[in-house]
Amino acid sequence: MLGIGAAERDAADHQAIVGQPQHLAHSNYCCADGGTHVRLSMAADALAEHLVDRRDDTALAFLATPTDTFAVPAEEVRIANDAYSSLGIGALRS
């Protein structure tokens, strides 16, 4: 967007994203070294929060690594295991 200032460009970019008529999916596939990774992750999280606050149809997606772990309530693990069992798939580790 040549010829317009940063504030106008930011407003136009904001409207281009938030104003989409389709359902919105925000994916956080960020990776960098050291402190840059922390800043990049924080920026992606801030963008996700901004979008979710303004669009109730926003879906969030994250790419986990094999070493990522997530703490979830035991009841959620039971529900997931029941769902996998109904498909003939083995249980998750709890």
Automatic annotation (TrEMBL):
Name of the protein this chain belongs to: Uncharacterized protein
